[in-house]
Amino acid sequence: MTSISFYLLPSDAVQQRYLFACKLIEKAYRSGYFCYVLTDTTEQSRLMDDLLWTFRAGSFIPHQLYTGDLPAIETVILIGSGNPPDAWQKNVINLSSRCPENFRQAERILEILDNNEAIKTVGRQRFRQYQAAGIKVVTHTINAGTDNDI
């Protein structure tokens, strides 16, 4: 059964949204989950790729951009704007404005919304789409300065 969590951030700064995503990616990796980070554009994918190298001193998260070619090993985080390959469909961190195409096949989808009205509007649409599919959605409101719900 698919598990979907929405994380609602207090800030409307896109950089805070991306940094929170990095923390979720790091937690997933340290827990042995190799996720796919779904973005809207190649530029957004590159930004996340760069940020994962620099967001925390001493942190190492093996990751790469997904351009259609599978990586040599499956123990990496993939970042891309296209549909995730089969082995990475189980855990998706969604930074895009759309639902993952095969979201019913995922074990877990993490949605991150900042306090920007445009981001919240498309997030509400995805929330309703998940509910219409009969999937229970859990919402976590993140307080300023805390990451307790990660």
Short description:
With 150 residues, this protein is α/β, with parallel strands linked by helices.
What does this structure look like?
With 150 residues, this protein is of the alpha/beta class. It has one domain (3-141): DNA polymerase III subunit chi (Rossmann fold), CATH 3.40.50. The chain is 31% helix and 21% strand. It has a 7-stranded parallel beta sheet with strand order 3-4-2-5-6-1-7, with helices on both faces. The protein is globular, with a radius of gyration of 14 Å.
Computed over alpha carbons, the radius of gyration is 14 Å
Helical residue percent band: 25-40%
Overall domain count: 1
CATH second-level architecture: 3-Layer(aba) Sandwich
**CATH level-1 class:** Alpha Beta
As a percent range, the share of strand residues is 15-25%
Output the CATH topology: Rossmann fold
Query: Structural class of the helices, strands and pairings?
Result: alpha/beta
Largest sheet: 7 strands, parallel
- Spans of at least 5 consecutive residues whose pLDDT stays below 50 are none
- Quaternary state of this entry equals single chain
Provide the succession of SSEs.
EHEHEEEEHE
Query: What is the strand tally?
Result: 7
How confident overall, as mean pLDDT? Answer: 92
Head-to-tail CA distance between termini: 21 Å
Strand order in the largest sheet: 3-4-2-5-6-1-7
